[in-house]
Automatic annotation (TrEMBL):
Native source organism of the sequence: Streptococcus pneumoniae
CDD domains linked: Peptidases_S8_Lantibiotic_specific_protease
BP GO terms, sorted: proteolysis
Higher taxonomy: Bacteria, Bacillati, Bacillota, Bacilli, Lactobacillales
Name of protein: S8 family serine peptidase
UniProt keyword Nucleotide-binding, yes or no: no
GO molecular function: serine-type endopeptidase activity
Amino acid sequence: NRGGNIEHDKDNLESSIVRKYEWDIDKVTGGGESYKLYSKSNSKVSIAILDSGVDLQNTGLLKNLSNHSKNYVPNKGYLGKEEGEEGIISDIQDRLGHGTAVVAQIVGDDNINGVNPHVNINVYRIFGKSSASPDWIVKAIFDAVDDGNDIINLSTGQYLMIDGEYEDGTNDFETFLKYKKAIDYANQKGVIIVAALGNDSLNVSNQSDLLKLISSRKKVRKPGLVVDVPSYFSSTISVGGIDRLGNLSDFSNKGDSDAIYAPAGSTLSLSELGLNNLINAEKYKEDWIFSATLGGYTYLYGNSFAAPKVSGAIAMIIDKYKLKDQPYN
């Protein structure tokens, strides 16, 4: 996943108190004007959210849940090390909190606003408590397309070295091809994929920086081309982050000229003050993103929470101009 957070207050909050902290939603909706201009309770558009699931105890998040949600995390989870994972296909209960926060950015709940409170959502759980296998992600993309979703939100990504060699003689080309096949399939079927850029302060067109990053994670014998998938593919909509002032988020990767930027927060104050002072000064309320998580609410930052805003806005445009009935490519 592509975000970070701090410990949260799990108390249920008054809507009027909560909503004054939603500077990001306020920015995207034009101070709520988009709700007035477009208030539709029977949306024909569906967004597939490929993430860690959703908190089923937060019933406000489930009001738009459609009938294609499913789980891809197998028995025992990632690398067979996740207790409590039984591989039940209907198990979309979030264990991480990330997916819940992403869902809330789109539809909101009983206490907080989302960008598009009327859009239909399907939750495809590809994370347990840790990582996701690329095979799970790819399978979920194919299924999300076949299930009739119009948009697929991926608040995740992976750096792949697609030629050259790691120390063990391998590279990531096979994984790259799997992603490519799924992305191409979605594109052929007219499904829009929205993917978060990374949070590593990189220019993804700078190969030396990408190679340096991937070399810090795995020993490289022969340097090769490094790409960030799925945002690398030209048919995806890549999303980076901006802060409250509209500047590029300090942690956000920069994409190509086609990338879109949406509110993701800032960690400049965190770097300047340190976590304890940031919390004591409540500066995070100004800099970070307020959203739902397991059992309550939290402040977060990251491009993970920019991408769903774009997904929700695109869905609203499709509905507003009836593009589902008269598709335009």
